[in-house]
């Protein structure tokens, strides 16, 4: 079957709900699982599906994302594959930046003219899932789709946060509502599997994954269908174009908030996590050539470690520890994500800091960290206690912020010895 496809990964907007992790980086560049970036997920799904023509659209805080793409994805000179960046731009025809998801693709269409493709796969850069896009493409082609939307069953409580659609027995979408009120859900149930129905998941939510037939998408843009896929393009296509629902049954989560980000990472520590890092479909990322992690005298349970860590902690439990993390003796890390560091601190600097009582990069001696996210390159002094929970009001506290009881220590923050948070 012809699968002449070009994939477009949307870099997202300002990512305010993931602040402060998005203060100096875009959402797709946020580190996940100790060694990857969020953008590695859709790119890896494409590559594992045999789709190797990939464009990443960027606009806000794109420097670290651009650097990661450039350093991670290289194809040999005999391959026609690529992972390229398309940055938002102003020109004589258009002086505005991207006004929405559809507008980002619309403004990029002129750059796609040099490529040979029949279908466009549009993906979000901030979701966690493993999916074979070939199956969705086959469904689109076999059913003569103009637009196919990947959907996932959700319950009534979650439905108000998604674009919810209703489909008939043949998968044709008959109605679509972007983030409907709870009162609007009556009559919007769709046919789902018996397992999902038993779990109360009878509403089909858009996953933000779309396949367009090339000619149809161009026609929609020529008709001026709007700037956003969820608010404009999808509702206007129903009844006018063959708009299909492709129901996905696997694990999928949208990394839209600090809480969802925190939970998705800690889920990786379970005996049987919902997102399987140890599958035959690898997650690709930058090869950093780091040494193996070194752990000395620590009690470790349900923890995930990146590469190049130096760990002397007393205890690490239910936590993700990122690349190049250093944790000194006597410290305890529980229910936390420590992102690690971008580089190793100079040994001479470490000695001088120890003599002067200044924190070194990493986590010092006799610290206690619970329900927290430590962004990269943090300097946590000795005897620091950070204990997250609902008892701490949400807000920005300078070197750290709190959302939903989760303490997020900002990138490069220096936390003085003896500091207590929570």
UniProtKB/TrEMBL annotation:
One term of GO molecular function: ATP binding
Biological processes, Gene Ontology terms: glycogen biosynthetic process
Keywords, comma-separated and alphabetical: ATP-binding, Carbohydrate metabolism, Glycogen metabolism, Nucleotide-binding, Nucleotidyltransferase, Plasmid, Transferase
Domain Nucleotidyl transferase, first and last residues per copy: 7-268
CDD domains: ADP_Glucose_PP (cd02508), LbH_G1P_AT_C (cd04651)
Classification via InterPro entries: ADP-Glc_PPase, ADP_Glu_pyroP_CS, NTP_transferase_dom, Nucleotide-diphossugar_trans, Trimer_LpxA-like_sf
Gene3D superfamilies with a match to the protein in the record: Hexapeptide repeat proteins, Spore Coat Polysaccharide Biosynthesis Protein SpsA, Chain A
Enzyme Commission no: 2.7.7.27
Keyword tRNA processing annotated: no
PROSITE patterns associated with the record: ADP_GLC_PYROPHOSPH_1, ADP_GLC_PYROPHOSPH_2
NCBIfam families: glgC (TIGR02091), PRK02862.1 (NF002772)
Family: Belongs to the bacterial/plant glucose-1-phosphate adenylyltransferase family.
Protein name: Glucose-1-phosphate adenylyltransferase
Organism whose genome encodes this protein: Chryseobacterium panacisoli
